[in-house]
């Protein structure tokens, strides 16, 4: 009993992070959209109404509410209100197939579902497969759904005081499911608060900073950035999709200063013909994956005069596991500094730590790590083998303690008995001045077991052939690492996840053609 009391008194909750922000930053702008602005006071008042309304629906601490929505102010309100009540947000990925959504809902068993108007049809298709859901609410007027605005207006009196604890489950974020069914990473109130604090400290955020929130709030890059913004009294700008010109207008209007620019979005932002028509001088840094396109990142920082944070992280640990910095005009070094409040080891297949310069799987422990996968004890036991969370990423440690990403362990190509890490080949190809982006993977080969295939996107108005790509690689890599197949695609033809990552498994499933052989 004493230990429980001490733990409750010494831990932070994400609900308290929101509540503190509403009190301390009352007159500052908290959330903006294309259509309006809300101060912290106004946001807090709406959150109170929603918390009361949710309570009047019969939901209590420990219950779950699913959300199927793009990034919009109502999603922010939902996170804050449910955190105050100790009710869990089941954050559904809007890009999932209906069968995958049904699977997630069946596992999570939410009592209510909140949905945006544009996705109401998708939610309707779940009705016969979601017996746990008693309340269907839409952010916009939609037939067959309770109206969100009416729900807030119906609230009477202040919300109840709930004894929310740091160990209470705050949200469930689903992994991509590229190797099977989506897995729901469970993030506690305490872990969410720590994630926000780490971002605020690492990026040196202040109340003058504003986040361009195009990234979905069902993704750790979206929700963690929201928490960091609330901690520091900044502005969180909600965008329903990653439209470059909308970003330009909101940066100029709301004086926004940071965002994630992931593959696809980054190049749209950089090459947009009307970027120079807007005042983007308040933008001071962007976050993304420099290892995927170092030349393009160098163009971005030079053209926009901003810093770039080269990200490494994941839903299970926080997207801030290890990051590197490059300044305007610098070529990204790809070395990343481990961030505070996480222990990181690089281990071999036996769990023994590897030496400097040797590739090893990154395993992690710390207060921002998830509590396991929802309703999946086998997957939880596997990922926490040995008491550390296994990321599945292979890294190498430098003499100075920095970490360099090698590749995902599952993407390792075995060709003629030799190991090839796709990321190494991708980095070499990306160094060619005619290449915008590259994706490398293994394809079946009767002689070698597997062969290396590269999918390449050319830079605008540049040309390069498959033979030139292979010749370029021969000069920089061991012969067995060179691509034996090269396919050229446009940026629009690449399959991507919600975060802009290439869906490597989809490209690999397309196989090869004789015309791609080099």
Please provide a written account of the structure:
The protein folds into three domains: 240 residues, Rossmann fold (3-Layer(aba) Sandwich), CATH 3.40.50; 68 residues, Luciferase, domain 3 (Roll), CATH 2.30.38; 105 residues, GMP Synthetase, Chain A, domain 3 (2-Layer Sandwich), CATH 3.30.300. It is 31% helix and 25% strand. The chain has 16 helices and 25 strands. The strands form five sheets. A nine-stranded mixed sheet has the order 12-13-14-15-16-20-19-18-17.
What is the secondary structure topology, with strand pairs?
Blueprint: H1 2-10, H2 14-24, E1 29-32, E2 37-39, H3 40-56, E3 64-68, H4 73-85, E4 88-91, H5 98-108, E5 112-115, H6 120-124, E6 135-138, E7 146-147, H7 148-153, E8 169-174, E9 184-188, H8 189-202, E10 210-213, H9 220-232, E11 235-238, H10 244-254, E12 258-260, H11 265-271, E13 285-288, H12 294-304, E14 307-314, E15 318-326, E16 335-338, E17 343-347, E18 360-365, H13 377-383, E19 389-397, E20 403-408, E21 413-415, E22 418-420, H14 422-430, E23 435-445, E24 449-458, H15 466-474, E25 485-488, H16 504-509
Parallel strand pairs: 1-11, 3-4, 3-5, 4-8, 5-6, 6-7, 10-11, 12-13, 13-14, 24-25
Antiparallel strand pairs: 1-2, 8-9, 14-15, 15-16, 16-20, 17-18, 18-19, 19-20, 21-22, 23-24
Helix pairs in contact: 2-3, 2-4, 2-9, 3-4, 8-9
């Amino acid at each position: 009993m004493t230990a429980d009391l001490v733990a409750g008194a010494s831990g932070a909750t994400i609900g308290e992070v929101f509540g503190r922000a509403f009190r301390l930053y009352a007159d500052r702008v908290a959330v903006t959209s294309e259509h309006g602005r809300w101060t912290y006071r106004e946001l807090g008042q709406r959150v109170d109404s929603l918390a009361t309304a949710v309570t009047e629906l019969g939901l209590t601490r420990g219950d779950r509410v699913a959300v199927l929505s793009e990034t919009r102010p109502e999603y922010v309100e939902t996170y804050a209100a449910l955190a105050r009540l100790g009710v869990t947000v089941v954050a559904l990925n809007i890009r999932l197939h209906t069968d995958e959504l049904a699977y997630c809902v069946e596992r999570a068993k939410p009592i209510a579902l909140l949905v945006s108007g544009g996705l109401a049809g998708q939610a309707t298709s779940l009705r016969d497969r979601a017996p746990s859901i008693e309340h269907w609410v839409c952010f916009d007027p939609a037939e067959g759904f309770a109206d969100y605005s009416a729900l807030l207006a119906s609230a009477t009196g202040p919300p109840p005081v709930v004894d929310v604890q740091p160990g209470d489950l705050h949200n469930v974020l689903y992994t991509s499911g590229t190797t099977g069914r989506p897995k729901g990473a469970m993030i506690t109130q305490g872990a969410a608060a720590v994630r926000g604090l780490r971002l605020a400290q690492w990026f040196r955020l202040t109340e003058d900073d504003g986040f361009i929130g195009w990234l979905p709030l069902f993704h750790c890059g979206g929700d963690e950035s929201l928490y960091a913004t609330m901690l520091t009294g900044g502005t969180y700008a909600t965008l329903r999709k990653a439209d470059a010109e909308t970003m330009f207008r909101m940066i100029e209007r709301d004086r926004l200063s940071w965002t994630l620019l992931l593959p696809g979005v980054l190049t749209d932002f950089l090459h947009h013909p009307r970027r120079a028509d807007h005042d983007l001088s308040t933008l001071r840094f962007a976050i993304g994956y420099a290892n995927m396109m170092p030349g393009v990142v160098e163009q971005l920082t030079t053209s926009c005069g901003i810093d770039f944070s080269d990200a490494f992280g994941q839903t299970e640990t926080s997207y801030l596991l290890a990051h590197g910095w490059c300044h305007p005009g610098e070529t990204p070094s790809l070395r990343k500094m481990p961030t505070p409040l996480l222990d990181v080891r690089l281990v071999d297949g036996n769990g023994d730590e590897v030496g400097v310069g040797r590739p090893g799987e990154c395993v992690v422990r710390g207060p921002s790590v998830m509590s396991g996968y929802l309703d999946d004890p086998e997957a939880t036991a596997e990922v926490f083998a040995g008491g550390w969370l296994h990321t599945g990423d292979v890294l190498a440690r430098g003499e100075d303690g920095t970490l360099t990403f090698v590749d995902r362990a599952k993407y390792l190509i075995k060709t003629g008995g030799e190991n090839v890490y796709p990321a190494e080949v991708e980095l070499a190809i990306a160094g060619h001045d005619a290449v915008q982006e590259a994706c490398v993977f293994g394809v079946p080969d009767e002689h070698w077991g597997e062969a290396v295939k590269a999918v390449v996107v050319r830079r605008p108005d540049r040309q390069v052939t498959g033979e030139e790509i292979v010749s370029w690689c021969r000069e920089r890599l061991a012969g067995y690492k060179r691509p034996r197949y090269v396919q050229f695609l446009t940026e629009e033809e690449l399959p991507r996840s919600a975060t802009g990552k290439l869906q490597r498994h989809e490209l690999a499933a397309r196989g090869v053609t004789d015309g791609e052989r080099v």
